[in-house]
Write the structure tokens for this entry.
Amino acid sequence: KMRVDLAEHILSQKVKKAIAEIPELKNISQGLRLYIKFLYKSKLKIQHIKFCNFD
């Protein structure tokens, strides 16, 4: 599980770096950064809910 989380984090960092380096994508990079942040926060919330579920 930790390996998957680390891989996802590294991938998102590489995507952010690639977007910053490609001039054509700089215009959409802000929206993509917000989307990645939203997905990451949503994933954390889901994991927290699963962790707190004692059924």
Remarks:
- The longest helix spans residues 26-52.
- Residues 2-52 form one domain.
- Residues 1 and 36 are 19 Å apart (CA to CA).
